[in-house]
Please model this.
Amino acid sequence: MGEQPIKIGDLIDVDGVLGQVEEVGARCTRIRTGENIHILVPNSSFLEKNITNWTLSDQLVRAHVIVGVIYGSPVNRVRDLLIRSVLDTPQVLNEPEPFVIFNDFGDNALIFEVYFWIHIKKVIERRMIESTVRFTIDRLFAEEGIVIAFPQHDVHLDTQGPLELRLVDSPPKG
Model:
């Protein structure tokens, strides 16, 4: 702890728990989660475990949103709308520039990721900004007729031979 890897006000992630450091004591550190729960973390944990300090050097962090669109979507237009969605969000920084990665040809969708930079001071801010971006993506895609994909399965029938259909009567009521 002599290296001062954390200080009061830092946003840290310890074992998947994200919180803001409120007190650094001799034996443990108190963090407050976004749910307003206090957690006491033994200082030895900071030496033994991987700790993510989101604000160690500054409050600038990169965030991202993943979205899948249906096959046949105009991928260049999707990219442009994703960039527009982050630039239309006031909390997103123009520099460093946001960018889009066409991640994969998924089972049910063409998968895109949009990356952008924000300043955060509180635990929930990143999630709130990402949510705002998702609302904007949904609106822009709807205006352009781009469909956000959902899991689906295609059924292919073998039509080489005749199909047999049978109608079954319902059981009598009563």
